[in-house]
Task: structure prediction
Amino acid sequence: MSEQHVVAMYLLHGGTPRDEEYREALAEALPDAEIGEPDDVGVFEIELEADDRESALQTVWDAVAAAGADDHVVFLEHPDIPGHFRTGSPD
Result:
């Protein structure tokens, strides 16, 4: 059974226009989630429905990748997703 989860995210460049552009792209990649506004330092929350915390983190990570936002938006807390920190192709 799914439940609501909150995932805290961080804009890497102080909320620049490019950061905001990628936050919006992330919101488009998560159409069923609630995307909060960033605070003064660039922290914002994503609220979404998922079976468990791990599924919520994976869904957000997949959306970050789909939006091409990984150079601008990161998890506030280090998630337990293997390889999420790697850049480029895993090959």
